[in-house]
Specification:
About 55% of the residues lie in helices and about 15% in strands. The protein is an alpha/beta fold. It is globular, with a radius of gyration of 15 Å. It starts with a strand and ends with a strand. The mean pLDDT is about 95.
Length: about 140
């Protein structure tokens, strides 16, 4: 079983939020290339809100980037699905079918196409209600369950 994680799930790896322990136990995840922008953006947003300070934000973003890109000593903790024409076309159809926002549709399209390439990707980790409902309708088990 491999987990596809949207950015809301990934943020929980770096910041203590409700249910963060659920996603922190997953050793490897498949993610959209969108995460490269969405996760740091969410972390900087938390800094602007005062939830974390600037030094914490810098450390958390650096930790995410090391996990995303890998380091000299460790491979990336994520399998990354690139955003291309196939993904955006599928996302456009999903946005209509499920009444989803654009980035959520891209996340779901990425998960679906990744699962078509690797049927072991059967679990979708997300915290947004609408995205979770759409992922379940598309046949994914959900994390948290």
């Amino acid at each position: 079983m491999t987990v596809y994680a949207d950015s809301s799930a990934l943020v929980k790896i770096y910041v203590d939020e409700p249910d963060c322990e659920v996603i922190r136990t997953v050793p490897f995840m498949v993610v959209s290339q969108l995460a490269r922008v969405e996760v740091p953006s969410a972390l900087w947003h938390k800094m602007r809100l005062g939830d974390i300070n600037d030094k914490q934000a810098e450390l958390l973003v650096a930790g995410f980037e090391a996990d995303y890109h890998g380091t000299e000593d460790e491979d990336s903790k994520f399998g990354v699905v690139g955003v291309d024409k196939v993904i955006t076309e599928a996302a456009a159809r999903l946005a209509r079918r499920h009444g989803m926002r654009s980035l959520d549709a891209i996340q779901l399209a990425s998960a679906i196409l990744a699962a078509e390439a690797d049927p072991d990707i059967s679990v979708f980790a997300a915290w947004g209600k609408k995205l979770r409902a759409a992922a379940e309708k598309e046949g994914f088990a959900l994390l948290p369950g």
